[in-house]
Structures
1.
Amino acid sequence: MQSVAQKVEHQLTDKGYVPVYTTRVIEQPWDSYTAEDHRTWATLFQRQRELLVGRAAQEFLDNQQRFGMSADAIPKFQDLNHVLRAATGWELIGVEGLLPELTFFEHLAARRFPVTWWIRKPGQLDYLSEPDLFHDLFGHVPLLLNPVFADYMQAYGAGGVKAAAIGPEALVNLTRLYWYTVEFGLINTDQGLRIYGAGIVSSKGESIYSLESAAPNRIGFDLERVMCTRYRIDTYQKTYFVIDSYEQLMEATRPDFTPLYARLAQLPSQAAGDVLASDRVFQRGSGEGWLNDGDV
Ligand SMILES: [Fe+2]
């Protein structure tokens, strides 16, 4: 099946300026994956599975197995959806790439998670500017089996629809929440800090850096703190925020953010590497290798 996606605009995202597509939902063209595509999946899958033992949240790894994800072949969305619908009522939908923001929020609010159908080329194993199938499927989908995290993602989508109506500043605040949790979040467990953010688990380098490097800050999650903190799109993060549980995320997201946006509008934003007196600090980063400008 040939997709007919049309690029409409470029949008600043977690990976820089990337194309946004008009495409709505498309069927995963599974038969069109080449042997090379399946090999790319296998290489990335095996590499990250090995690396993530003892680094990713155990539930993340277990859930990949519940889905039956393996190195054998690129999973079929249809098969994953049987498991996912039964567990949390979520559904994966195939897309060509990043969607316009409001469309993305509307999907999440309806418990539909958009997954890019195509996978990167073998020369792009370690870096890709747009989210692809590996990032979306390997990174984002496993935690959708967790009922609390699944509710959090829906609440985030509903919050996005609301924020879009309030204005661009509200969206900036909300986007930081997604960034520092869904993409780059760490969780505190009895065994130590573990990764749950999709942006980290789908990156070999950041899977190690986020947990083991002395350079970044690791700071306890606080909703307001996160919403006023800028971030990096061109380097590893200067700060990772640590949650205690997915319940904590869900609870923080439950209230209406409208008064919070109004309050945050009066406050200066924090640089990505700032440590505040009020922070619960797991690690104060050495700052080694940090660039001075470029926070977004
Ligand atoms: Fe992502």
2.
Amino acid sequence: MLKTIFIAGGAGYVGSKLVELALKKKYKVICYDNLVYGKSSIKKFIKNKNFFFIKGDVRDKNNLKISFSKHKIDYVVNLASIVGDKQCQTIPKIAYDINYYGNKNLTEISKINKIKKFVFASTCSNYGIVNPNEFANENSKLFPVSLYAESKVDAENYLLDQKIKSLEIIILRFATAYGVSNRTRFDLTINSFTYEAIKYKKLHIFAKETWRPFIHVDDMCLMILKTLKIKNKNKVVLNAGFTKNNFSKQTIVEKIKKNIKNCKIEYVDAIVDRRDYRVNCDKISKYLRVKQSKTIEYGIKEILHKIKKKIIKENEIKKNLLNQNCKRLQLFYSKK
Ligand SMILES: NC(=O)c1ccc[n+]([C@@H]2O[C@H](COP(=O)([O-])OP(=O)(O)OC[C@H]3O[C@@H](n4cnc5c(N)ncnc54)[C@H](O)[C@@H]3O)[C@@H](O)[C@H]2O)c1
């Protein structure tokens, strides 16, 4: 019998790619999502007999209860979230409710239904600001500098406080993603810089010396699927990225410039985002035996190709830029 994964937030940037890969690997997939950004990202799965979609909100305990009663679920992956600092600031209370209480609801329902594994998508943003000569590891002090990171740290602590032995809890602190998915986000550093470089031949870069770890969206999904395959400890926290994939903004821009000629760069001396961190991800490489499959250069070329060939269309990109994403969030949740 096929193993079943319940993916909350399965219509999102990471989720819609995870659904695709999980179906390819012959899992049965329950995608639970309230479709903040619409359903086009999951349209192509609708005819797959192993794909089931449930429209629902992770804050809705009753709907979760009904959904879990309809399927025999083995694994739960929680990707449902308001993602990003500005996005959370747009609807602060709702964002906290979703990121913290939504995760709590999913954990409780997983315990009741004797789920084997619970994977929580956390973030390296939890490290906030790290001494420039150091790399944060899983034991480093967390220093959230945004509501987004605060909600994720609180959700992590809630999970780490759970006493239940039968449920394996895996917390993946993901690096910042790049690359194409079925809902490609253009509010992420590498994707948005690449788009702006193509479109305007100009980039305004703030705080060029700030560092981040990066990961291709496909590698995020491969890591999630790998955690389902191996026997985990009762609770495990892993930085989910690759140590060699930490870069400053300036280095990212140089990589983009190599692929997009005649792009002017203007560096601006202002701090709009306080985060600055490098992250050591050696633990996950050993733990899951994963290697990076797609570099940043690959991600840049992939975005470039899809935009040039109009496989990703301008209107699709515009909808997924930072300001537009925030407007969509505001509109969506004001109707509720
Ligand atoms: N993309 C990144 O760079 C990145 C980095 C670190 C961690 N993460 C984490 O990975 C997860 C997925 O991120 P993403 O980039 O795919 O974001 P996304 O915004 O594309 O996806 C989130 C999905 O959750 C759904 N959702 C939002 N509120 C919901 C609710 N109340 N009930 C049910 N569904 C709801 C949305 O409709 C969307 O489909 C998040 O938990 C995020 O914090 C992402």
